[in-house]
Write a structure and sequence with these properties.
CATH class: Alpha Beta
CATH architecture: Alpha-Beta Complex
Number of domains: 1
Helix content: 25-40%
Shape: globular
Strand content: 15-25%
Structural class: alpha+beta
Order of helices and strands: EHEEHEHEEEHHHEHEEE
Largest sheet: 4 strands, antiparallel
Radius of gyration: 17 Å
Number of helices: 7
CATH topology: Cyclic Phosphodiesterase, Chain: A
CATH superfamily: Cyclic phosphodiesterase
């Protein structure tokens, strides 16, 4: 079923790379192309300690993305969300940084922006704040699940106010490439991926669109529409 004909359980506002080599490789790496809503075969990457399907099992369903406003259930209609998202994108400016780099974030791998990320953090805060009227409150079960991460007082405050702990001052933009890995596996996967990714990474790195994603009933996310940042 085409993405625009499906019903979605949650929506999110993400960054997703524009069509091209990086988008193609990362979709194949994860095994899920959110732009087409289809599974895709994994690439052959020499030197991996485990099959790609195992390394990427956790992030696969989300598609390759950087979170701006985390997944939420709607209070009203998708059409109302889309109207407000279009208006928000029209008044917000793109954020630009020198580059992306492969980073080790705790026990997982991700691409992270290099240089001054303050404009990107401000952009994400505007998106979280500007669309929050469309977010249904988190359930008690969701709140308790988040609290298992031993949140700081500021993260707890974010959770109660915005439905997610890692927003506003706790926001750290990243594009996830793996699930949790043991230290030796993390290093092996990083060494295998670095030469493959290096020629694909954009310089500069620009977040020039807000991408609306929807979660289907199987838990997989689809890229529904791109909104150019025109402010």
């Amino acid at each position: 079923m085409a993405a625009d004909m499906q019903e979605f359980t949650r929506f999110a506002i993400y960054y997703a790379p524009e069509p091209g080599a990086l988008a193609d490789f990362t979709a194949a790496w994860l095994g899920w192309d959110a732009a087409t809503g289809t599974a895709c075969p994994h690439p052959e990457v020499p030197g991996l300690p485990r099959p790609v399907a195992e390394i990427t099992a956790t992030p696969r369903k989300y598609g390759f993305h950087g979170t701006l406003k985390p997944p939420f259930r709607l209070t009203g209609s998708r059409a109302a969300l889309e109207r407000d998202l279009a208006a928000l994108a029209a008044r917000l400016a793109p954020a630009e940084m020198p580059s992306l780099a492969l980073s080790r974030l705790g026990s997982f791998l991700a691409l992270t922006p290099q240089g001054d990320t303050a404009p990107l953090s401000r952009l994400a805060a505007e998106v979280v704040r500007g669309l929050d009227a469309h977010r249904a409150p988190a359930s008690e079960a969701e709140l308790e699940r988040r609290r298992k991460a031993r949140l700081s007082p500021a993260q707890e405050e974010n959770l109660l106010r915005w439905g997610y702990p890692y927003v506003m001052d706790a926001f750290r933009f990243h594009l996830t490439l793996s699930g949790r890995l043991a230290p030796d596996e993390l290093e092996a996967v990083a060494q295998a991926l670095e030469p493959v990714l290096a020629p694909l990474l954009p310089t500069p790195f620009r977040v020039a669109e807000l991408c609306l994603f929807g979660e289907d009933h199987a838990g997989r996310f689809h890229l529904l529409h791109r909104y150019a940042l025109a402010g």
